[in-house]
Amino acid sequence: MSAAMTKKAWAVGLLLAATGCPEPAKHNQFAQLVYDLNVLHTWDPSSKARGQYPYDQIMGCPAEMDHSLAAAVTDERPTAIYDRISGRTALVGDVAFLMLLERLGLKWEAFYKDGVFLSTQLPNPVFCLKWDPGARGRVRNRLLALLPPLEE
After folding, report:
1. Which of 16-25, 62-71, 98-107 has the lowest mean pLDDT?
2. Which of 26, 84, 107, 147 has the fewest CB atoms inside 10 Å of its own CB, making it the most exposed?
């Protein structure tokens, strides 16, 4: 390779390095964080899932994140949060619902008429959510209606 071609190659390389890779759209980043809720492995009644990457990242996100959390209320994939005594595994939708309640400063009772109930049988609320048939969709729709529209 000639010296002139080497200089051109370096110039192109520097230009590409300076421009960098475009950052993914925020919506895609939020969706990925919500998808990763299935790796949560502990949920404490008082500290929730603090100290675990997806939880900490989501709780530190701007309000636009709430739309992704609301959409995830219907996600019935299991998390790694398991209670040996009751044999229950928390679902991603349950975690998303509890996180959204905390972010919005709402109580679960606001969604009682939609078919969600939080039992007090166990000390940890993540294992005590009960949903009537179709309630997840109704709650998701109500939550999305409460949120301000997303800016394009």
Report:
1. 16-25
2. 84
**Whole domain around residue 106: which residue ranges?**
25-146
Q: What is the pTM of this model?
A: 0.82
Among 73, 137, 122, 120, which residue's Cα sits nearest to residue 99?
A: 73
Distances in Å between the Cα of 32 and the Cα atoms of 25, 58, 67, 90 are 11, 10, 13, 19
Q: Indicate the SS3 state at residue 101.
A: helix
- Whole-angstrom distance, CA of residue 62 vs CA of residue 69: 12
Q: Note whether residue 151 is domain-resident.
A: no
108 within some domain = yes
Strand ranges, E, within the chain: 78-83, 88-91, 116-118, 129-131
